[in-house]
Amino acid sequence: MKKHTLLLFKNRRPGECVFLEEYRRQGGYTALVKALKQMDPAAVRDVVKASGLRGRGGAGFPTGVKWSFFPSEQPGQKYLVCNGDEMEPGTYKDRQLLEADPHQLVEGMILAAYAMQIPTGFIFIRYAYRQAMHNLERAIAEASQAGLLGQNILGSGFSFDLHVHGSAGRYILGEETALLNGLEGKRANPRSKPPFPAVRGLFGKPTTVNNVETLANIPHIILGGADWFASLAYTEKGAGTKLYGLSGHLERTECHELPIGITLGDLITEYGGGVWKGRTFKACLPGGASTPFLTAEHLAVPLDYEALEQVGSRLGTGGVTVFDDHTCMVAATLNLNRFFARESCGWCTPCRDGLPMVSWLLEKIEQGQGTLDDLDMLRGQVRNINGRSFCALAMGAMGPVESLLRLFEEELVDHIRRGRCPLAN
Length: 425
Hints:
- The chain is an alpha/beta fold.
- Helices cover 43% and strands 12% of the residues.
- The chain has a 5-stranded mixed β-sheet, with helices on one face. The protein has a 4-stranded parallel β-sheet with strand order 3-2-1-4, with helices on both faces.
- Strand 5 and strand 6 form a beta hairpin.
- Helix 5 crosses helix 6, helix 16 runs antiparallel to helix 17 and helix 17 packs antiparallel against helix 18.
- It is globular and about 75 Å long.
């Protein structure tokens, strides 16, 4: 296998956290000095855009393009918000970053703020990530004391204040406009768009929201350049590395930093140690709980944005959950849908009423009480929910359901004809 470069995990040590002195010994804040001394804000934006970096929080939108929408030259208050509200089942990569190397995010946020001329930033972090929150608060205090945060950073004339905000802990808070409402102390319902946050965001001011992993990449792009960053991927259209969090029925379940475009099969075999207990691979979620299933026919597919979209799935957060051949896919999908139904904010009908309906149908089938008409009703729910909900929560919930109907129809029919789960003990 081609040798790969570690960026985000290069300082990670088991059970330890890298703080300011060690971070600087490893080259930390060199990118900030380079940007403030040698680059104007537009040059920083241009490098990030040329690098091909795409958002690592799930949507995969090009980061430099998102920054180009921001009114950087507009005077007055503006905000940069880091989305650290990581709550999707099977996704835990941001926690690994924050607990191991918090200064990497702090430097990335200062660079992003400089690029867009933003004076204030918030890190919105999941309430349960207490160690990560503690590490971030210490890193911010160290950076402030060293003149890397606050007024007139390193004598450049640029000022930036950074704050940590503990989330109340709901899945919907990962949606950027619900997050902004939560940060304002309001109920975390998503907002209607347009206007987009770049126009009217936090407290009505222009705001950009980026994910932890996305922002942690910025110092490396500034130091190494756009072409170097893009070259790290295994695929032509990919760029950089990605954190892949392994979970499920594998011999080893860890988080690895690997090039964009590693194949699903290599990830499972080389880094997950293969399917556990000598069993056979049946399916996986390639990018968190809201991504459509893949099966054994997809093991050669590169894990990048385009390749996964071509086979009907998504890279999402890179949280790869594997299911062995003893798994009932109806029960697995029911478990996922129950989570999404419980986490719905209840704002729109397709999500509030549609997701419980899907759970009811799946539960009927799993318990052996379903009919073939229920399959048609499930297909109808997928059609009615996709594209009709207020935000992406319900559409994400339909990813596993749609792929269950597409890839495992025989297993659904088997439940109905036997009048029981064929895989039940």
